[in-house]
Structure formats: C-alpha cells, structure tokens
Amino acid sequence: MRSSLYHARYYYLYQLLFLFCFLLLIQSVLAQVGPGPSDFARFKQNKEEFMQRRAEALAQKRGVEKNKPFDPRLRTEAVRLMEAQKAQLQNSRIQTNIGIDGSWTELGPNPIPNGQVVTGPQTTASGRTISIAVHPTNPNIVYVGTAQGGLYRTTDGGTTWVPLMDNALSLAIGAIAIALSSPETVYVGTGEPNFSGDSYFGVGVYRIDNASSGSPTITGPLNDEAGNADIFTGRSIGQIAVHPTNPAIIFVATTSGIGGIGGVAFPGVPSRGIYRSTDATSADPTFTKLTGLEGGGNFSVRDLILDPLNPNLLVCNLIANPGGIYVSTNALTASPTFTRTVTFSSTSISELTAEFAIQHTSGPNPTIYAATGNLGGRVLINTDGGTTWTQQIDNNFCTAQCFYDIAIAVDPADATRVYLGGSPTLVFGISTNSGVTFTNNAATAVGLHVDSHVIGVSPSSPTTIYFGSDGGIYKSVNGGTTWTSLNNSTFRATQFMGLAVHPTDPNFTIGEHRIMVPIFTSPAAPGSGRILEMEGML
Fold it and tell me: Residue 455 above 60 pLDDT?
C-alpha cells in the first residue's frame, strides 16, 4: 500500500515537472517569434503603431523629433566638432590623467558565418552592398560601397579589402564612378538611394585621386553650387556619370534620404534632380542643376547613364507621378533639354523606379536596357538613341520590393548578354537573347544572399562579375554561373541597427544586425560568440 502511494506521488511529481518544462519550452519559442497582436493589445496599440512609436523614440535620441524641423547639416557640424574635441583631448593632459586615448577596438563579427542564401550551402555574409565600380583595364581593382559601412577597395580581386573613407562625414555610399580616361580618379556619392526605411542620407560627392595607390588622396565632401549653397547634404546620390574623355565633367543624380530607422524625412533640404559639374577635378568644384528636366522640379532621379561614345546622350529615371524614362540628346550644352519617352504613372515608388545598363562599342546608337518596377518588374530595350523602348520580358523579377531590389548590367563585349537581379524571385539571372528569357535562381544564384542591389561587370574581362546584395559582396569568374563570397575578415561592413549591454556583465552584449543570422558575445569570454538561427539579432 505504501509502495503504491509512493509510486503515485512520484508519478504525480513527474507529471508536474514535465508540464513545467513544457511550459518553459513554449515560452521560449514564443519569445523568439516576436510580439503578437495580444502583446500590443495590453497597451491599446496594434503592431504597426508600436513599431512607429518605437522608431520615433529612437529618432528622438538622435535629435530628430516628430513634426519638428530638422537640419541634416547639423550632423555634419556635430561630427566635425567631435573630431576637433577628440584631437584637443589627445593633445591635452586630461588624456593622461583619466586614461582616455580616443581609440576604439573593433569587435566584429567579421564576417558573419553561415549567412542566409537563396539556394545552396550557406556562405559568409556582411552588410548591404549597394554600389560597385570595376577598373576599366584591371578586373582585380574594384571599389565597393555599402549602406553604412563605408567604401572599400581591393587590388587583388577581393582577397583583401581596404577601407578608404572611414573618416568621411557619411558612410552610406550610394554611387561610385571611375573616370574612364583617368582611372586613378574615382568619384564617390554618399547617401543610399534605395528608398528603404534605413536608407541614410549623405553629404555630397567625394573625389579620390591616385585611387588604387597606397596613398590615395580624398577630397570632399563636394556639395556647393556657384553661390556656395549646399545642394547635396540631406539627400542621397543615386548615380554619378563621368564624361568618357574629360574627367572634370560629371553628372550627379540625387534622391530622397532619411535619418535613422523609421523613415524620418527632412524639410527644407536641397532640391533633388540632376546636377552637373564642369570643374570636378579642381580644388573646389561647383555644381549646377539641370533645369531642363521637368522644369527643374524637385524630383528624385534614381539612375542615369551616358553614352560612352556620345556623351551628349543622357538617359535617366525620374520618380514622379507621372514620371518614367527621360532622354537628353544635348547633355553637354549650357541648358540641356529632356524628353520623356516612357511614362510611368503610379503613387507607388516601386512602379516608378528603373535602372539602366548600356553597351556601345560600334555603330551609331547604343543598346540600352531598362530594368523597371513598372507593372511589377520587367525589362525594356532601346536601340535608337532612347526614343523607342520595347518590352523584352515581364517576369516580376523585383516584386514586391522594386523600390529596393533592382540590378541590371550588360556584357561590355556582347550586347545580347544581360544580367538581372531583384527580389528573392530572381536574385541573379542571365540572358543570352537580349533579355527575352533569363536563367532562374537554381541555375545561377547558388550561394547568393537575397535582395539584389548592384551588378558590376569587368570591362576588360567580361567573365569576371561582382555582385552586391543585402548579404555583402560576391564574385564570379565564369560569367555568373558560380559564385564565391568575398565577405572575409577584411570586409567589415556589417550594419548594426541597435546595441544593448548587460547591466552587470560588461562582456555580455547583444547587437541587432540588418539581416542574416545573429551572434552575441559570451559572458565567459569577451568577443567569443554563439550563432543563433534567427534573423535580425546578433
């Protein structure tokens, strides 16, 4: 009898223990999937309202208050003041007395292992890569711009990377252009033009001289018009085009930019559009807005291209309702004029966005491709100098993020070979019939992370291709058939959105990364980490 009672009590305790463990497991799972509607209902909010108020609170800590004007130039002034104070501190006795030397120790992670890919085995990953420029005669010299990690250069095909602009006033690098006639001159446009909630604004253009040398010279930011008014700070630069034989003539396309997560826009910032400089190689260049484009209105211009054999031909994408594809045949004149040759009408930025690729080695006219989000994602072709555009394919390659995920390039030696990237629908595809059909992810996107932003083809070695996405930088040496991640320990572009330190253990830190997989430092040893299979936290 006592034995039976003992076993019954034991069995009862065993059930309670099992139930307790089961509840702990459920609580752990729920804690990882994020707040649900019932969680927000306790505070009489829905999830959207909660996220908006959270973004407003974060912005307030950055000095951006809701419904109050904010001048983005204040950030530039603050950075300059901080640098001056740091220099003063380093030269004072205070440094010795309190042990502050002004230096920082990088913790990483560099790179992030086991990054998410669209298909195939996982590879290393880093931060969002949004601009690429390949040297015209050397496929191993490449300049890469990231969303918030700055500008990187490689001279060995991506084996090692060197940051070039860590001291710039903006680390968002939206555009890079190499002067074809003087490839040691590189122009860098700051600010991300992708229209996302974390596409940070820039401060203008930087020029790098002796760019591939061991001692490059960086000048900038360049952002003045003839009257010394700042015409770039607070905006993002979508593209820079350099005259093919005169490196002093450049065209700059500007778009909207925001500050911090949550899409905080700024009132009173410079007018968007296309700006031209004819003295860009001078010590103090100036820019002039091309008012022939929609009457000089304040509209974002996402992309533009120049004909390499006829720089009077300029093609651009203007974001407006209506907007579309605009062409100038007198871009070098004092007052260029523009004609809209394709019209996009929508209230959605995705429907209004386009990016271009151009190939012109012979004949009177170039071959131009436009990858556009209009009608969900399609490719157009032009062969008559920008007048008539023909749809090649309507494959929804960028749905549902055409404002963010568009990349197109053409083989510099073969106008029928086109490369296209977009949303997870088509991360990277190859066409050998002028864009009529493209390969799918399973064939040509193995090992790539999703959200395609830029494709750079080597002019001197067209089978060498560089690819940038939310996962970092990748390379193919066989025309896009297979890929290698170049996200190594020297490419330190991981984009963190938040950071938290344990209240009592300084070795325990959690960081929030833009994408990928998370990692946190171990309480046992600073800098050690453990990988979690959950997107967003590190």
Answer: yes
